[in-house]
Amino acid sequence: MDHFEYRNGILHCESVDLVDLAGRHGTPLYVYSRQTILDHYGRLATAFAEVDPWLCFSIKSCGNLSILKLLRQQGCAFDVVSGGEVRRALEAGADPARIVFAGVGKSDEEINHALDVGVGYFNVESEAEMDNLASRAAAAGKTASAALRVNPDVDPKTHVYTTTGKRETKFGVDVERARNVFKTFHGRKGLNLDAIHLHIGSPVNDVSAYVESITKGLRLIDDLRGDGYTIRSLNIGGGYGADYETDQAPPAMQYAGAIVPLLRGHDLKILLEPGRTIMGNAGVLLCRTLYTKASGDKQFVIVDGSMTELIRPCLYGAFHFVWPVAPAGGLVPPQRSATLRLDGTRLVDVVGPVCESSDFLARERYLPPMERGDLLCVFTAGAYGMVMASQYNSRPRPAEVLIEGSAARVIRRRETYDDLVEAERLD
Ligand SMILES: Cc1ncc(COP(=O)(O)O)c(C=O)c1O
Predict the structure, then answer these.
(1) Which end of the chain has the smaller Cβ count within 10 Å, N or C?
(2) Mutate which of 41, 58, 173 to test ligand 1's pocket (most atoms within 8 Å of Cβ)?
């Protein structure tokens, strides 16, 4: 699952004692395990090796430059959704030709810039965007490689806010309209439309949802080829799971075992856009207890981390396992589970200092007794954690530290109060 383990009652990341680390770098603090990143990337690469795919790391899940560089060194391509993410990919040394650019609302500036730097593929989500891309590319004397994002109308059985491949969502073009899009745009100056893109949601722990979506995608590709169009590649998207609870997500081999046989013999370049499955388990958020209090019959643990560092619980009601870094009485969790209830624990809500009732990290959990000053770890926070951090309530964003064995390296410094006001000092 990952390299966050209790040793002698204290949580370690690889060989680093997280009580020491929090003492040195302060809290709230994001901590990433380099070995966990490499393990998850490696498992995915091995599982899908037969189809020799481009693994396009989804920068939206974790955009830290040091992590992007690490993944680039492993051979990763990149999936981006904004001009800012193009910038991050380039700054991490990505080959622009191995960047794929998705998103329903690319601005003219973003398209021009992406054409300028030569991104490999535009994943186009509407006829209007296709038209705009073709015109801009033609005006610049370029030819844009485009994939049509198709909405396969498949239920990924995940949170409604992260469901993207159902007909009623804003993403892509429905299968029925896709053939028409090819008819309209085939041979259009400035455009080389020769690929299909699918992404049904995240996290998708039901492998059969991929089977259904890819089967629909391949059927469409057969039809398009039958209509005389050349289709060179199929991007099957991201969404592969992470272990928020122990063994919750299918292993990479299970996804590949169902998906790879579908892809054999189709003469297609395959692309994947994984984010969470590589980074989710590779990061945690460390917080320190500020106060504890009772209110009515509820017990609250108030920590210095909040929805501004990790918004997923507030935004999606997402579950993150939480546990003290050095639990009282040596109460080490035997597994990470929403229903874990050990003797000696008590029922609490873990909340942050932000002035919103939705500012919670965990609700109704049985935790070992916690006191002011105790450290708490929020697990599986490496994806959609720091990238969604905000300065709401004028809270400086936290630092990020990357662990390699016994070495800890700051890969993003903690923001300061000066950072909060810098962009507004205009006189
Ligand atoms: C188009 C696209 N590709 C890939 C991803 C990455 O998803 P995940 O991090 O779950 O792999 C997303 C996430 O929303 C996405 O929208």
Answers:
(1) C
(2) 58
